[in-house]
Write a structure and sequence with these properties.
This protein has 17 helices and 13 strands. It is an alpha/beta fold and 413 residues long.
Length: 413
């Protein structure tokens, strides 16, 4: 029976990397019910002590196999080399016996092992994120040189390349030249979990003591610098002082209460101004339903240009227009000019007074035409940002190409 293997090193089910690996390989598995599938997880020495917890997690594919790095202190070159040789040898044995039609991997945790493998099948890599540019932005030259070499190797050698946005695909083409067999897998929003529901909205607003005339601006996420929470709070603080609108701020975060309190105090915000909810991801959708617009402020860097922000899909699916910045011009959020106007406001990242005044007028427009804006946002998420779109891309484009390329390769051999 034909089969495929996925190789990864992500074990924390709450991270974006794991969620993307889970969604992609689940879609491949579901599109190939006749295939056997094996999940190969590379685990380091420290992770071995968490093996019981890892084993308790449900496997992504039908079967699962762990390949450990046997020696500690992997930061040393010699130890790292030994670990890679051992893990690579084990992977070669697995491939020899299973003879997969294709192997799937992601940039950092897999290519070192997949890249040099010799077998009849195909290599598929999910290359998401501008890793070299991110290292350069952080002034990490060794990481930049490593990631730059790795990215170039993948782009030139892999059979099929997946990336998270059209901008990422064009970014790679600008760097290395155009190539065939590049597909966009956004890791879109699950619209069976994130959607607008009027009854849920009424119940949650009642629970949170939000009046019907209140306009609720929401921020969902952490307090990392790149998430620009300070700019978000500065923006809300300005609006609260200058606008005649009846505004409330809903903060959905898992940050500690002390950090939240101290951060809010920096901007003169108190508990009466901000509703703070520490909630699990499964609860985020219902609280988004209580809001009217969502903050998604990002710096205009290549890392953010090529991104597909998870929150973008979640906000829009729940009917929330975005308060974002100029970088959003690179994101896949507009089918028509009208949709873009209804679904996002691009704010000057320096929060100029003119930009803030225009934002105030936009918020007023959203309040006046609430239902039209919600419908436009929800439809946009469903049509181009949902996981259903990803599934169709895999089923109708990636899988047929995989099968055709495999047949061609076998004939050549």
């Amino acid at each position: 029976m034909p089969g495929f293997i996925t190789v990864h090193s992500s074990i924390d089910t709450k991270t974006g990397d794991y969620i993307r690996i889970f969604k992609l390989n689940s879609d491949l598995r579901d599109s190939l019910p006749e295939f056997e599938s094996l999940e190969v997880i590379l685990i380091n020495f420290q992770t071995i002590f968490k093996i019981k917890k890892i084993l308790a997690q449900s496997p992504i594919l039908k079967k699962r196999f762990f390949v450990p790095f046997i020696l500690p202190f992997g930061r040393f070159k010699v130890v790292n080399k030994v670990n890679h040789l051992v893990a690579g040898f084990i992977l070669k044995i697995i491939v020899f016996f299973i003879k997969p039609v294709f192997i799937v991997g992601e940039m950092h945790g897999s290519w070192d092992f997949i890249g040099d493998l010799k077998f009849k099948g195909l290599k598929v890599i999910d290359l998401h994120g501008a890793a070299p540019e991110e290292a350069l932005y952080s002034n990490l030259m060794n990481d930049f040189l490593f990631n730059d070499k790795l990215e170039k190797s993948i782009y030139s050698k892999v059979d099929i390349l997946l990336c998270q946005s059209g901008r990422m695909a064009s970014h790679l083409a600008e760097k290395y030249g155009k190539r065939d067999h590049v597909f966009i897998y956004k890791c879109g929003v699950d619209i069976t979990r994130f959607y607008f529901n009027e009854e849920v909205r009424k119940n949650v607003r009642t629970e949170l003591s939000i009046a019907s005339e209140d306009i609720v601006l929401v921020y969902s996420g952490g307090f990392h610098k790149w998430q620009m929470i300070e700019e978000t709070l500065r923006c809300y603080s300005f609006l609260k002082k200058k606008s005649k609108l009846q505004l409330r701020f809903l903060l959905l975060t898992n940050e500690s209460s002390n950090l939240v309190r101290s951060t809010l105090e920096q901007f003169g915000l108190v508990s009466d101004d901000v509703i703070v909810k520490n909630c699990k991801h499964e609860e985020v959708s219902k609280y988004l339903n209580a809001a009217d617009l969502g903050f998604l402020i990002r710096e205009d860097t290549i890392m953010n240009q090529v991104a597909f922000p998870t929150k973008m899909g979640e906000y829009l699916a729940c009917g929330l227009p975005l308060i974002t910045t100029e970088v959003s011009r690179y994101w896949d959020i507009s089918k028509t000019y009208e949709d873009k106007v209804k679904c996002a406001f691009s704010l000057d990242i320096n929060l100029s007074e003119d930009s803030m005044e225009r934002l105030g007028r936009y918020i007023g427009d959203v309040y006046q035409g609430n239902e039209d804006y919600r419908v436009a946002c929800s439809n946009l998420a469903k049509d181009i940002l949902s996981r259903e779109v990803d599934k169709l891309e895999v089923r109708n484009k990636v899988i047929p190409l995989l099968k055709n390329l495999y047949l061609l390769k076998v004939k050549e051999l």
